[in-house]
Amino acid sequence: MSTEENPAAEPAPVIDVQGDGRWMSQHNRFVQECKDAEPDVLFVGDSMVQLMQQYEVWREVFSPLHALNFGIGGDTTCNVLWRLQNGELENIRPRVVVLWVGTNNHEHTADQVAGGILAIAKLVLSRLPKSKMIVLGLLPRGEFPNPLREKNAAVNNLLRASLPQLGPVQFIDVGGSFVHSDGAISSRDMFDFLHLTASAYRTISMTLHELLLQMLEEMPQERRALLV
Amino acid sequence: MSADSNPAASPSPCQDIQGDGRWMTLHNRFVSDSKGKEPDVLFVGDSLVQLLHEFEVWRKLFSPLHALNFGVSGDATQHVLWRLINGELDYISPKVVVVWVGTNNHGNTPEQICGGIMAIVSVIHQKLPHAHTLVLGLLPRGKSPNPLRERNASVNALVQAEVASLSHVSFLDVDPGFIHSDGSILHQDMYDYLHLTQQAYQKVCQPLYERIKSLLDKQAP
């Protein structure tokens, strides 16, 4: 599906309807962080990414990898695309970019959401030709089986098939352990059946951390002087 | 202002537009969870309440007080009101109910939001005549000065005045001074200029804990 016909691949900022301009404040802060920091790993996405930084696991596992967190709660693929096109990839050369977005794309079909995620991956790889990517699959949501679980699973299947063709992109689905045999998700894993608890983040972080270490070790460290 | 003319005081459930029924699931879970428990303290409100449960500070300060957490992200006063009328208070008798809601009441005036909070206070008193309700002040929000900060401050002033004459309700301003001299709120305190980091929750929760403890001590038989 070309960008012209996929609304999920149309970059769009979040318009401030509430009145305190928080989305733009966060974006501007991330753009500034790109000027101040030299991350080896960049996390970008929605609240699944943003919330991770609020738990201990971030400080213990990801900070030591010199990771930056550009997650914003509520973001769709359109919002992430806009942010990355408008400064959040400037001045930095992360060796790995971790992308986790798509569960908030309520207006779009699974095909469109997958297309939006692919568009983001293509953008990142074209702007950072020496970087690798990890794309996380959308997690199941809701306490019991529901249409959004099917949609998210469909997005994941599409990504699994099409991401490898883009190049150095790994797709990982960390949602497997959350749905029990009776189809239920526990509030001990997702306190509101969407967002992860500290212990659930620990579980997924182990897989993610291992993969990151592998990717970082495979790549020779660029000397900083060469990046200027 | 009557409930009919105030949308913030008119109980309404959240409609499931996303498709996974999470709001109702959470409400049902709160009702059924409450059947087995005997909490001394109940926290009810929006995401500022809900997220508090996910951090260490909850386990350290509030679990030992036998507290339950009925926070739902995104809730406005009319949603909390609906939940309290529809089962969340039916099976428990906490001594203290902590109410923290109002910042999501977009489109309502400070008077309407205050009306919504007072409607909640009233329902709690009807269902739990022996409980003390502690209403927490709305925090400032946004990186820089903006209309929502003014709105929230107005709500706080109105609520504080209304509860002054009531013996079963008190108001607590839990803002430890999030706004700096240049008018900014730091992301180290509110990572998205609305929700609290762990460090910010520590600053908010210590005085809150002290107040709850003293209320519980007063109520001890």
From TrEMBL, chain A:
Subcellular location: Cytoplasm
Catalytic activity: 1-O-hexadecyl-2-acetyl-sn-glycero-3-phosphate + H2O = 1-O-hexadecyl-sn-glycero-3-phosphate + acetate + H(+); 1-O-hexadecyl-2-acetyl-sn-glycero-3-phosphocholine + H2O = 1-O-hexadecyl-sn-glycero-3-phosphocholine + acetate + H(+); 1-O-hexadecyl-2-acetyl-sn-glycero-3-phosphoethanolamine + H2O = 1-O-hexadecyl-sn-glycero-3-phosphoethanolamine + acetate + H(+); a 1-O-alkyl-2-acetyl-sn-glycero-3-phosphocholine + H2O = a 1-O-alkyl-sn-glycero-3-phosphocholine + acetate + H(+)
Any single Gene Ontology cellular-component annotation: cytoplasm
Single annotated GO MF: 1-alkyl-2-acetylglycerophosphocholine esterase activity
Main location per the UniProt record: cytoplasm
Pfam family, one: Lipase_GDSL_2
InterPro entries per record: SGNH_hydro, SGNH_hydro_sf
Coiled-coil region: none
Enzyme superclass (EC): hydrolase
GO biological process: lipid catabolic process
Top-level lineage group: Eukaryota
EC numbers for this chain: 3.1.1.47
Positions of the SGNH hydrolase-type esterase domain: 43-202
Keywords attached to this entry: Cytoplasm, Hydrolase, Lipid degradation, Lipid metabolism
UniProt similarity note: Belongs to the 'GDSL' lipolytic enzyme family. Platelet-activating factor acetylhydrolase IB beta/gamma subunits subfamily.
Entries under PANTHER family matching the protein: PLATELET-ACTIVATING FACTOR ACETYLHYDROLASE, PLATELET-ACTIVATING FACTOR ACETYLHYDROLASE IB SUBUNIT ALPHA2
Identification of the protein by name: Platelet-activating factor acetylhydrolase IB subunit alpha2
Species name: Carassius auratus (Goldfish)
Phylogenetic classification of the source organism: Eukaryota, Metazoa, Chordata, Craniata, Vertebrata
Gene this chain is encoded by: LOC113077229
Automatic annotation (TrEMBL), chain B:
Pfam families for the chain: Lipase_GDSL_2
Cellular compartment(s): Cytoplasm
Alphabetic keyword roster: Acetylation, Cytoplasm, Hydrolase, Lipid degradation, Lipid metabolism, Phosphoprotein
Residues in SGNH hydrolase-type esterase domain copies: 43-202
Presence of the UniProt keyword Acetylation in the record: yes
Entry's EC annotation: 3.1.1.47
Biased composition (Low complexity): 1-13
Region span, Disordered: 1-20
Main location: cytoplasm
MF-aspect GO terms: 1-alkyl-2-acetylglycerophosphocholine esterase activity; platelet-activating factor acetyltransferase activity
CDD domains attached to this UniProt entry: PAF_acetylesterase_like
GO biological process per UniProt: lipid catabolic process
Any Gene Ontology CC annotation: cytoplasm
Catalysed reactions listed for this entry: 1-O-hexadecyl-2-acetyl-sn-glycero-3-phosphate + H2O = 1-O-hexadecyl-sn-glycero-3-phosphate + acetate + H(+); 1-O-hexadecyl-2-acetyl-sn-glycero-3-phosphocholine + H2O = 1-O-hexadecyl-sn-glycero-3-phosphocholine + acetate + H(+); a 1-O-alkyl-2-acetyl-sn-glycero-3-phosphocholine + H2O = a 1-O-alkyl-sn-glycero-3-phosphocholine + acetate + H(+)
Subunit relationships: Forms a catalytic dimer which is either homodimer (alpha1/alpha1 homodimer) or heterodimer with PAFAH1B2 (alpha1/alpha2 heterodimer). Component of the cytosolic (PAF-AH (I)) heterotetrameric enzyme, which is composed of PAFAH1B1 (beta), PAFAH1B2 (alpha2) and PAFAH1B3 (alpha1) subunits. The catalytic activity of the enzyme resides in the alpha1 (PAFAH1B3) and alpha2 (PAFAH1B2) subunits, whereas the beta subunit (PAFAH1B1) has regulatory activity. Trimer formation is not essential for the catalytic activity. Interacts with VLDLR; this interaction may modulate the Reelin pathway.
Protein role: Alpha1 catalytic subunit of the cytosolic type I platelet-activating factor (PAF) acetylhydrolase (PAF-AH (I)) heterotetrameric enzyme that catalyzes the hydrolyze of the acetyl group at the sn-2 position of PAF and its analogs and modulates the action of PAF. The activity and substrate specificity of PAF-AH (I) are affected by its subunit composition.
Family, as annotated: Belongs to the 'GDSL' lipolytic enzyme family. Platelet-activating factor acetylhydrolase IB beta/gamma subunits subfamily.
Protein name: Platelet-activating factor acetylhydrolase IB subunit alpha1
Organism of provenance: Carassius auratus
Lineage: Eukaryota, Metazoa, Chordata, Craniata, Vertebrata
